Amino acid sequence: MIIEIDFNSDEAIYIQLRNQIVMGIATEQLHAGESLPSVRQLANHLGVNMHTVNKAYGMLKQEGYLTLDRRKGAVISVQTKEKHQEVEAMNMELRMTIAQAICKDISREEMYHIINQLYDEIMQNQEE
Questions:
Q1: Is 50 in a helix, a strand, or coil?
Q2: Maximum CA extent, the chain
Q3: Would you say 110 and 98 are in contact if contact means Cβ atoms under 8 Å apart?
Q4: Is the pLDDT higher at 111 or at 71?
Q5: Which among 93, 108, 122 has a CA at the least distance from the CA of 23?
Q6: Strand, coil or helix: what is 1?
Q7: Which pLDDT score, from 0 to 100, does residue 127 have?
Q8: Residue of 30, 32, 3 whose CA lies nearest to 16
Q9: Tens digit of pLDDT for each residue in 15-51?
Q10: What angle do helix axes 13-26 and 108-127 make, rounded to 10 degrees?
Q11: Are the CB atoms for 101 and 111 separated by under 8 Å?
Q12: 3-state DSSP call for residue 4?
């Protein structure tokens, strides 16, 4: 998986890194048990501070996407809570997205279309 950082983006670099790793897992470009580069290696490769990569890895660990092993480093290990807990967490995230859509006058139908389109796109990338 190739990670690309947009240094001109308003989105924090550690968030870009986190999001690309989550997308890599969702599209099966990254698999359970696969080791990611060390913090130092990835920071050097991307040309960013080690603390930035460390923050992204820490966030991914906290969210249940990685385990940190002294011997193997950061390892893909998606850990799920009970489904109702996952749905509740997703509900909290989507609540703000829907509030933003309402503020920007994006209709329910447009949101359905966007979600369906993105879901299909990610699932298609998984199959490739």
A1: helix
A2: 50
A3: no
A4: 111
A5: 122
A6: coil
A7: 72
A8: 3
A9: 999 999 999 999 999 999 999 999 999 999 999 999 9
A10: 70
A11: yes
A12: coil
Mean per-residue pLDDT over the chain, rounded = 92
The DSSP annotation for 56-108 comes to: HHHHHHHTTSEEEETTTEEEE------HHHHHHHHHHHHHHHHHHHHHTT--H
Q: Quick check: helix, strand or coil at residue 47? A: coil
Token look-up 């001109």 returns: 8
Structure tokens at 110: 């447009």
| Residue 59 and residue 99 in contact, taking contact as beta carbons nearer than 8 Å | no
pLDDT in tens, 50-61: 999 999 999 999
* Six token digits for residue 126: 């998984």
Q: Rounded to an integer, what distance in angstroms lies between the CA atom of residue 93 and that of residue 15?
A: 15
